[in-house]
Amino acid sequence: MVQLKDKVFIITGGVASIGYEIAKKMIDLGARVVIADIADDMGKAAQERLGEHAFFVHTDITKDEDCENLIQQCVNRFGKIDVLVNNAASYGDDGAKTTRETWLHTLNVNAVAAAILGEMARPYLKASKGCIVNTGSISGAFPHIERWAYPVSKATLIHLNKTQAVEYAADGIRVNMVRLGHVWSAPFEGLTQNDRAHADKVTKAYNLIGRVANGEEIANAVAFVASDDASYMTGSEIVVDGGYSAMGPEQHYPLMSKLMKNQ
Question: Residue 263: is its pLDDT beyond 70?
Answer without folding.
Answer: no
